Amino acid sequence: MPARVGGCRLEESGRRRALRLLRSRLVCDPRERDVCRWLAYSGSPILLGDVLFTPLHSMIDQSLHSELGAEPTNGDGFGIGWYDGEAEPGVLRSIEPAWNDKNLREVARHARSPLFFAHLRAAIGSDVQQSNCHPFRRGRRLWMHNGFVDGFSQVRRELLLAVDENLFTGIEGQTDSELLFYLALTFGLEDDPPTAVARTIGLVEEVGRRHGIKYPFQGTIATSDGEQLWVFRYSSRGESRSLFFTRDVLSLREQYPDREVLWKVSEDARIVVSEPIGDLPGAWVEMPESSCGIVGGGEERIVSFAPLPPVRV
User: Fold this and answer.
1) Could you tell me the pTM of the whole model?
2) Residue 94 DSSP code
């Protein structure tokens, strides 16, 4: 992902101004809160703990003290998913707060992965239970989401009926995020993730607007098959939740030659986050509005993203 794409570099002198600017974009309607935090890593194998726990304002710190989220505490559960050469990715999900879970620390100290997800949950509209925690998994596919389907109780039945009957029994929880995953699988997520996600959001918007919902979709999404990572930033309102990615590793090594972690990862390593971690001013670039990022398999690019009309399966 080229560092020139996107408009927000968190220079030391301007970091507080950038945080205030991003906070001002958040909507006060409680249905539209920035309800979760997530992180995705792609690169050479690294200990999960080096990314989740070590940096200043780490992912786990954000579970207690989020700076960019309208909800400062994300304590309604967490989940991690990682690829390690097995047929399916490993998944650990819990309703315990991430900052207080010994199992998470133990796994993060020992699990090493070239591609992994982490998600912190602040629940609105669904129960605090393990089946509602991200990331969601089917086969080799992982999925996580930060945001919401507005008016979900009004449109849930119609969206559920659009899920392929062969996939339907895999739905375990209550969340709009898991339903989005199964709609994307229905629309071909395994073969063409950008098109599948575009058709999923297209369906959400079509159904929502028929029910009088002005802005049906809000959020950021990450999905992977273990080889590539796809991330999406989009909202019907055009004011999407925050999403950032790291600049290229070679540039960061030049700027911060004494940072050991930068020499542990490969030159093609990228981290994508809801909220920047660490204390490396200039390391993060904001992902553009209405865009899709693709990393891995020799590919790094950002392309524009827009919903597509749904297809009836």
Assistant:
1) 0.83
2) E
